[in-house]
Automatic annotation (TrEMBL):
UniProt GO cellular component terms: cytoplasm
Subcellular location: Cytoplasm
Keyword Ligase: no
Gene Ontology biological-process annotations: proteolysis
Matching InterPro entries: Class_I_gatase-like (IPR029062), Peptidase_S51 (IPR005320)
Full protein name: dipeptidase E
Predominant subcellular localization, coarse grouping: cytoplasm
Native species: Micromonospora echinospora
Enzyme class, UniProt record, top EC level: hydrolase
Alphabetized GO MF terms: dipeptidase activity; serine-type peptidase activity
Reactions this protein catalyses: Dipeptidase E catalyzes the hydrolysis of dipeptides Asp-|-Xaa. It does not act on peptides with N-terminal Glu, Asn or Gln, nor does it cleave isoaspartyl peptides
Length: 248
């Protein structure tokens, strides 16, 4: 990995139908770790940090990867010394509250800039963007800010669901909610279907995975379908601005 280019693996989700936790992404996880044999897991999107870390530890064991939970010491120090970091899914608001209170934003940005691999799933993918504003989650807690790691300069919507014309649900579709985001913010959104991931390496961003790609939403334009395997590096050139005011 060339220093100066981030090494990121951003998963839409951590499981695929009929597969064990993270099993669908074993090959790309090893690719992202690039020979590293340990990682620090950030479990703060769920309440039971020990159980969550044990789940990740069991999932990484067949790959020969040692896992330590960020809560098993001083989180900032563990991240600062980590070979790699994996931020797990759960509730994005709870995760963002924790990363601010534990002062993790600056250290994660610095380590990623040095070439440390960053792996995220679901909420862990949400926080790799500049803001939590395109999460699907309920605000069960109030973080001090919506600011997140900003490892990519655009927004991501994991777990993207296409509109279902046969659904009896009367609320907004995911597409409608993302269009509402763009009414207030001029920032592209990469909507990732289940089973997909964004791989960022050597200055190239590629949407890949075991599913059928995703969609890109931009202000003033129709959503664009993106096939699995597509190069989406051009997204970094289309970044606009968030709604003026506090991130909160």
């Amino acid at each position: 990995m060339t220093q100066g280019h981030p090494n990121l693996l951003l998963l839409s989700n951590s499981a695929a139908p009929g597969r064990a936790y993270l099993e669908h992404a074993h090959d790309v996880i090893l690719q992202a770790l690039d020979g590293r044999r340990s990682l620090v897991f950030v479990p703060f999107a769920l309440a039971d940090h020990d159980a969550y870390t044990d789940t990740v530890r069991r999932a990484m064991e067949p790959l020969g990867i040692t896992v330590r939970g960020a809560h098993e010491g001083t989180p900032r120090d563990l991240v600062a010394d980590a070979e790699a970091v994996f931020v797990g899914g759960g509730n994005t608001f709870r995760l963002v509250k924790a990363i601010h209170e534990l002062d993790l934003i600056g250290v994660v940005r610095a380590r990623v800039a040095e070439g440390m691999p960053y792996l995220g799933s679901s909420a862990g993918t949400n926080v790799a963007t500049p803001s939590l504003r395109t999460t699907n989650d309920m605000p069960i807690v109030a973080p001090p800010s919506f600011e997140t790691f900003g490892l990519v300069p655009f927004q991501i919507n994991p777990h993207y669901l296409d509109p279902d014309p046969t659904s009896t649900h009367q609320g907004e579709t995911r597409e409608e909610r993302l269009v509402q985001f763009l009414e207030e913010n001029d920032v592209p959104v990469l909507a990732m279907r289940e089973g997909t991931w964004l791989r960022v390496a050597d200055g190239v961003m590629r949407l890949d995975g075991v599913a059928t790609g995703g969609r890109i939403f931009r202000r003033g334009a129709e959503p664009v379908e993106v096939a699995s395997g597509a190069d989406v590096t051009w997204l970094v050139e289309r970044v606009g601005s968030f709604e003026v005011g506090s991130e909160r």
